[in-house]
Amino acid sequence: MKAVSLSAYGADPVIADIPEPVIAADEVLVRVGYAALNPLDVKLQQRVMHEVFPLGFPYSPGTDLAGTVVAVGHAVVGDEPGGWREGDRVVARLDPTRGGAFAQFAAVPAAQLVAVPPALDLALAAGLPTAAGTAWQALFEDGGLKAGQTVLVHAGAGGVGSFAIQSARTAGARVIATASGTGLEIARKLGADLVIDHRAERFETMVSDVDLVLDTIGGDTQQRSFGVLRTGGVLLATSAPPDGALAKAHGVAARFVFHSSDARRLGQVVDAVVAGSLAVLVDRQVPLEGVADAFRHQASGRARGKILVSLG
Ligand SMILES: NC(=O)c1ccc[n+]([C@@H]2O[C@H](COP(=O)([O-])OP(=O)(O)OC[C@H]3O[C@@H](n4cnc5c(N)ncnc54)[C@H](OP(=O)(O)O)[C@@H]3O)[C@@H](O)[C@H]2O)c1
Known about the structure:
The protein is an alpha/beta fold. It is built from 9 helices and 15 strands. Bound molecules: NADP nicotinamide-adenine-dinucleotide phosphate.
């Protein structure tokens, strides 16, 4: 089968012919229709995450996929709840160390699969697992966001941020977002009540008494975010671990959000998309042959939503 392959840390992604994966008893073989990039794919390629996710080479990257079941392991039951059958449309997040989403076929643990209802396009479904799952986990599980609270979402036009704006808004929160250029209008349309141009303005001079900050940037943005929180507020960081001493000095809590794959949560995200309260912001969709350029675009940090790769 065709699959994207990395020969070593730092190597460009190339398309290689590799054997189809062999499924274990509790796994399902999925013909991948679409996969989505995440900054994690670039970080793995660049050896940034090697201590958390050590890779073996050649490595086939990619965590987020949607496709069709073509075979099931003998321990996977078709008729019972949680079972799968040939022809089922599914979405999943693969373990980053194992990778393999940018490939024509992927072996996926049955417990990680979520059904894609007919109303949801497979390409859009592929854009959900990591970015929407992280936004959901951060806001509702790690952050405990409640209706009536105010949340500041950094990078509101990015993968995680675009889902966070919509999810927080649906939950009844007041949403402030940072963005720039075309991202300003995108963040507004996604439901932000106030959008701040991070290139032109200092957000900390414009907002205060925020209940939650979703910091997907780190560095200076994170440092300046502590001061906009109310006493007892929470900073949720996805990019860089927050400074505990600084949090204490500001009288706030700070947590690093480490995405944990959870089929139940991904199912809630899928339901929200089908219900119309969550949409997938698509930056671009490219064929498999465009994956090296797609990696470069993701690495630029300027993507507006999800970069989708078609395997068909
Ligand atoms: N810990 C975890 O489990 C976990 C899970 C998911 C993601 N993450 C991390 O979270 C980060 C965000 O992920 P993502 O998928 O949302 O990334 P992304 O889609 O690449 O984010 C791109 C967006 O960031 C915006 N941006 C860049 N610098 C900014 C700044 N200083 N202020 C405001 N916006 C800025 C860009 O807008 P402009 O063009 O306007 O700058 C762009 O729209 C990444 O570091 C990723 O690795 C971690």
